């Protein structure tokens, strides 16, 4: 049986160790907390300090940066990017290739479409159809 971790060197020359998550084989950095019922698909990276709640699904090629929070049953589609310190609420759906900026907040139950960008510190809430609600 192969090893259950991968060592990767970052831009600063530090070597970070990532373990492979049991559900999906995505890479989880030391210091990240991912609920056992969550799915992190192969090719996804979850950085240190991240918290992923029960039932969440992180798609292929997703990058969740440090200290982000992914709520229960949230769905992050393939190749999305969740910036550092961002918070994704329960049952949120994030589309393919969508960018969520640093410290952004996406409200519970929101639907964010494909190829969208949520700016740094932005707070977003949508109705079930994905129409943005007034702040």
CATH homologous superfamily (4th level) name: Hexapeptide repeat proteins
- Number of helical runs? 0
Main sheet overview: 8 strands, mixed
Global structural class: mainly beta
The CATH class designation is Mainly Beta
* Rg, Å, rounded: 14 Å
Number of strands: 19
The average pLDDT value, as a whole number, equals 93
Number of separate domains: 1
> What is the CATH topology descriptor?
UDP N-Acetylglucosamine Acyltransferase, domain 1
Spatial sequence of strands, sheet with the most strands: 1-2-3-6-9-12-15-18
Any idea what the shape is? globular
Fraction of helical residues: under 10%
Distance between the termini: 52 Å
InterPro entries: Hexapep, Hexapep_transf_CS, Trans_hexapeptide_repeat, Trimer_LpxA-like_sf
Keywords: Repeat, Transferase
Organism: Microbacterium awajiense
Protein name: Transferase
